[in-house]
């Protein structure tokens, strides 16, 4: 008997998603253009289709943190929206264990309300009771770091920088234990200290047997946070496996200079570690590699 794998939390089965865009061929979509079409008895503008996902299949299991990488427009956000149940697939199916929570940079908070009120509302929206929300309040504010440089939590959210709002949104979402947490670029906006806290929280969620999907253009964050990575390109999965191998292949194609620098830095690190460990009294230092 082989080892048993943890239970699946998300199964994506040959999912296709096609966006339909109306009004793309009839010139400008304004009133004079519409009148012109009527007068010239033209048909209504045609519908154009964008195939964002073209047969994506994957199985995610408890305890996994999965990075989603790929160039702009490759289908990463669309895949998250589909897993979250916010976009029904055009073909194929998504099965999930529990309700996945999508945390995106655009997640709705009320900009005219103070950070304080948004924390409570966000907690209630996430299904916590009022007492639970009050109990978590201090932790959420501390996690977000919003009050690190003054009392910002009592100011309306419209006065926050985009990084501050993204941090507060992440802190609210992370306060709850999720079976499946879907994160779209949220970590990229934080500073180094916030990123460390987020990475620790993601590890904690995983150790509570949750599954985390992380869409990010920051390959460093993906390397740090996920041990499995899926590379999407033009709506297809190009690679799915060990993060180091997948991110390396992605970098080799898209950022050869970045990859060269990383390999050089790693070689230098290994050489200095080798030097430190192979230096013997009276003997010359040898660098490995
Ligand atoms: N609401 C929409 N209506 C029509 N087309 C859309 C819509 N949202 C995305 N698309 C198209 O679907 C494709 C995939 O977009 P998606 O946002 O999923 O890519 P992405 O990999 O998340 O990109 P990025 O890295 O730039 O955020 C793109 O061609 C995009 O133009």
From TrEMBL:
Keyword Transport appears in the UniProt entry: yes
Q: Which intervals hold domain ABC transporter? A: 33-259
Protein name listed in UniProt: ABC transporter ATP-binding protein
Its cellular-component GO annotations read: membrane
Q: Gene3D superfamilies attached here?
A: P-loop containing nucleotide triphosphate hydrolases (3.40.50.300)
Q: What terms describe the molecular function in GO for this protein?
A: ABC-type transporter activity; ATP binding; ATP hydrolysis activity
- Chain segments carrying region Disordered: 267-289
Q: Which UniProt keywords apply?
A: ATP-binding, Nucleotide-binding, Transport
Q: Which family does it belong to?
A: Belongs to the ABC transporter superfamily.
Upper classification of the source organism reads: Bacteria, Bacillati, Actinomycetota, Actinomycetes, Micrococcales
Please indicate which superkingdom the organism of origin belongs to: Bacteria
The yes or no answer to whether the keyword ATP-binding is present is yes
Bias (Low complexity) ranges = 267-280
Q: Cross-referenced InterPro entries, in alphabetical order?
A: AAA+_ATPase, ABC_transporter-like_ATP-bd, ABC_transporter-like_CS, ABC_transpr_TagH-like, Bact_Polysacc_Export_ATP-bd, P-loop_NTPase
Q: Which Pfam families match?
A: ABC_tran (PF00005)
